[in-house]
């Protein structure tokens, strides 16, 4: 074999010349700082959701009559000028003699140190084995509890509920997107490959789904689910409903891409070298668009999360024994409870952070996936 | 040209038929019917109803006939007489309850659409012409925030802020004293004082998205040779920018009117529930929860039809404004 590629300057091979497409993509992605941070944030959120039992200080269903609407507690480090590590003060419960409304104040005599790797409520970790180890908790009497984000009307710890709720809300996004991904990529690739009448028909269906205002449609479909069904089953059906409406965008992306690469040289080359259609599609065409699909999927997840939240918030999605961010926000639905306990809006903050992070990540991925950018 | 518009209008007819069928299927989906819900309601108050009476009730509402017959009965009355049937829950004709609410929903959606444009176009143009300036960054951050905050959450937060810090009651469209009063200038003023909240809430999300589109389009257009030519001929910046690149960059606005409308109507439904507005949202929600099928069906149908008309209008607008599409 004659070596024709040796350059006259005898330059050593640079890493960039031999890097694989995914590596190049990763390098480009890393330059997008906001997207990189969003990736970390999303990783953190899913990590928290995965280890909810361990990270949440309490059982999310454990109520305490004495602790309704406790405002968020602040963590202190110094007690009377002396450093004693992180701790919270005990609660001083007072009832207003006129309005009979409960109010809580810090009882600065009572120091409740925060202890890490604390033994608290017992739980089945991932349904595997029983343990009672929590990341943190407080030492103190049976009645002393720590509420870093406050408590709800039944005295349940909002932080614990937020952590458990994240598990449901974040996974609805993933499962919903998985379903819509399956529908979208199948219909999209068929439309893009076959073209003609089939394409026109699929386009019509997509247009039809798009032209129905989503919320009324969601409401209609969600109202059709019987209330008495198993919450987990309802949860699955809700994701299917979200997917049935959400696939059109993905299908459009896939179809468009198939249309553009269908006549490109590398496809023609594969066909000319005798590859069967199936091989052309799976080995040559689909891999060329993985990055686009990943970006489209990332941008579709926040839509799903918003859908779940909105439905649950209206009482047509997931229902109370299940905890999700939308279900938690139901408590903050009216002015009275928000003005009494503004911290109940905290799940809203979590939703905004998640949606923004997914949007930035999706933007970053889309930019990184584009090989023609400067 | 005319042929294109005609073809486009004809295409929307099968879509409408499909929508009406889909609507009917949706309202039929919940197990049981209005009579089942009614019986459950009666049982809660301690009354009971015999199986025979239940059958008679069903027969009187026409619920015992085959689905196809029920569908034809429903849709033909709507088409030929504008009669949407009887709301089983309110014991009133649906059309009596429907139009007022639809009108308000459409008004709020249209106003929000206008506000979306009023916000997005100038800011998008500014951000593009002064790329990487302080205000460009500020608007970018605001734009991303607007995209990340769900409508109903924004409504909740505004409601809370208004209540807690400005002693202003956000919610509803009228103050209690004007709710049933006849239309006067004072009532109109009161309406405006309440109306801005839902309009702003609905406009933020859309404006945030369009802002990015406008900025990106403008940046692309500004780099093109024709802009340079215009400058070279001695035109001022303002004249060049607004006369040429803005017109091209505006295309996506027309092409997305059709999608913006369903999004706004959807947004209105949920925002209205939070803000307690007398628009379609709360009534639709209640109808669905009570399985008041003619009512729910009427709403979903009308909202969808308006959406299709919106898409149609945007397609026609697009052909009118963009010669490239007109002559394609």
Overall description:
The complex is a heterodimer of chains A (374) and B (328). Chain A has helices at 15-18, 21-31, 33-50, 52-55, 158-194, 196-211, 214-223, 231-262, 265-272, 277-285, 290-313, 325-330, 335-340, 346-369, and strands at 76-79, 82-95, 102-125, 129-138. Chain A is α+β, with helices and mostly antiparallel strands. In chain A, α5 runs antiparallel to α6 (196-211), α5 (158-194) crosses α11 and α6 (196-211) packs across α8. In chain A, 37% of the residues are buried. Chain B has 328 residues and is mostly helical. Chain B has a domain at 100-292: MetI-like (MetI-like fold, Orthogonal Bundle), CATH 1.10.3720. Chain B is 78% helix and 1% strand. Chain B is built from 15 helices and 2 strands. Chain B is globular and about 85 Å long. The chains are: A alpha+beta (374), B mainly alpha (328). Chains A and B meet through α6, α7, α11, α13 and α14 of A and α1, α6, α7, α12 and α13 of B.
Brief descriptors of the model:
heterodimer, A: about 375 residues, alpha+beta, MetI-like fold, B: about 325 residues, mainly alpha, two-stranded antiparallel sheet, globular
Question: Which helices and strands appear, and what pairs or packs with what?
Answer:
The complex is a heterodimer of chains A (374) and B (328).
Chain A: H1 15-18, H2 21-31, H3 33-50, H4 52-55, E1 76-79, E2 82-95, E3 102-125, E4 129-138, H5 158-194, H6 196-211, H7 214-223, H8 231-262, H9 265-272, H10 277-285, H11 290-313, H12 325-330, H13 335-340, H14 346-369
Antiparallel strand pairs in A: 1-2, 2-3, 3-4
Helix pairs in contact in A: 2-14, 3-5, 3-14, 5-6, 5-8, 5-11, 6-8, 7-8, 8-11, 9-10, 11-14
Chain B: H1 2-28, H2 34-44, H3 51-61, H4 67-81, E1 86-87, E2 92-93, H5 94-129, H6 134-148, H7 151-165, H8 185-222, H9 225-232, H10 237-243, H11 245-249, H12 251-275, H13 280-289, H14 293-321, H15 323-326
Antiparallel strand pairs in B: 1-2
């Amino acid at each position: 074999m004659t070596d024709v590629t040796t350059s006259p300057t005898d330059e050593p091979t640079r890493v960039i010349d031999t890097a694989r497409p995914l590596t190049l993509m990763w390098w480009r992605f890393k330059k997008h700082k906001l997207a990189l941070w969003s990736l970390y944030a999303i990783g953190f959120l899913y990590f928290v959701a995965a280890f909810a039992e361990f990270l949440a200080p309490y059982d999310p269903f454990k109520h305490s009559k004495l602790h309704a609407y406790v405002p968020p507690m602040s963590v202190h480090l110094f007690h009377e000028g002396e450093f004693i590590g992180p701790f919270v003060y005990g609660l001083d419960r007072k009832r207003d003699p006129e309005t009979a409304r409960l109010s809580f104040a810090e009882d600065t005599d009572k120091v409740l140190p925060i202890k890490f790797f604390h033994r608290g409520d017992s739980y089945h970790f991932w349904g595997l084995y029983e343990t009672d180890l929590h990341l943190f908790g407080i030492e103190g009497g049976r009645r002393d509890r720590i509420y870093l984000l406050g408590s709800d009307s039944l005295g349940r710890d909002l932080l614990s509920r937020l952590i458990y709720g994240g598990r449901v809300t974040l996974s609805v996004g993933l499962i919903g997107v998985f379903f819509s991904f399956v529908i979208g990529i199948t219909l999209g690739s068929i439309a893009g490959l076959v073209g003609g009448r089939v394409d026109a028909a699929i386009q019509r269906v997509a247009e039809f789904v798009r032209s129905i205002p989503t919320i009324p449609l969601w409401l209609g479909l969600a109202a059709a689910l019987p209330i008495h069904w198993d919450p987990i089953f309802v949860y699955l059906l809700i994701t299917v409903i979200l997917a049935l409406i959400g696939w059109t965008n993905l299908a459009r992306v896939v179809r468009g891409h198939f249309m553009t690469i269908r006549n490109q040289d590398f496809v023609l080359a594969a066909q000319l070298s005798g590859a069967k259609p199936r091989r052309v599609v799976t080995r040559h065409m689909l891999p060329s668009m993985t990055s686009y699909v990943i970006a489209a999927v990332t941008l579709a997840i926040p839509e799903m999360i918003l859908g779940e939240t909105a439905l649950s918030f209206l009482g047509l999605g997931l229902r109370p024994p299940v905890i999700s961010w939308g279900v938690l926000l139901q408590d903050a639905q009216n002015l009275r409870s928000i003005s009494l306990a503004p911290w109940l809006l905290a799940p809203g903050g979590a939703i905004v952070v998640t949606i923004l992070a997914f949007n930035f990540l999706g933007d970053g991925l889309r930019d990184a996936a584009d090989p023609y950018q400067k | 040209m005319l042929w294109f518009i005609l073809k486009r209008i004809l295409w929307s007819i099968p879509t409408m038929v499909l929508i009406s069928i889909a609507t009917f299927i949706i309202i039929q989906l919940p197990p049981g019917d209005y009579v089942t819900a009614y019986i459950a309601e009666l049982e809660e108050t301690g009354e009971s109803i015999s199986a025979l009476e239940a059958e008679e009730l069903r027969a009187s509402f026409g619920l015992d006939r085959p689905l196809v017959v029920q569908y034809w009965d429903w849709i033909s009355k709507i088409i030929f007489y504008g009669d949407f049937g009887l709301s089983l829950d309110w014991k009133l004709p649906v059309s009596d309850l429907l139009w007022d609410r639809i009108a308000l929903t459409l008004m709020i959606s249209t106003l929000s659409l206008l506000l979306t444009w009023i916000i997005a176009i100038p800011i998008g143009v500014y951000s593009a012409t002064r790329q990487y300036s302080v205000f460009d960054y500020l608007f970018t951050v605001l734009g991303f925030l607007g995209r990340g905050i769900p409508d109903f959450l924004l409504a909740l937060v505004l409601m809370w802020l208004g209540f807690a810090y400005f002693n202003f009651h956000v919610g509803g469209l009228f103050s209690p004293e004007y709710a049933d009063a006849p239309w006067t200038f004072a009532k109109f003023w009161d309406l405006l004082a309440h109306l801005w909240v839902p309009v702003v809430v609905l406009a933020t999300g859309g404006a945030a998205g369009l802002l990015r589109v406008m900025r990106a389009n403008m940046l692309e257009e500004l780099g093109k040779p024709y802009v340079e030519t215009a400058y070279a001929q001695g035109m001022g910046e303002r004249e060049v920018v607004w006369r040429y690149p803005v017109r091209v960059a505006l295309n996506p606005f027309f092409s997305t009117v059709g999608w913006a409308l369903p999004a706004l109507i959807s947004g209105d439904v949920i925002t209205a529930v939070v803000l307690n507005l007398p628009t379609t949202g709360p009534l639709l929600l209640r109808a669905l929860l009570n399985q008041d099928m003619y009512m729910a069906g009427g709403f979903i149908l009308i909202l969808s039809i308006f959406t299709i008309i919106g898409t149609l209008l945007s397609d026609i607008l697009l052909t009118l404004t963009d010669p490239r599409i007109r002559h394609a």
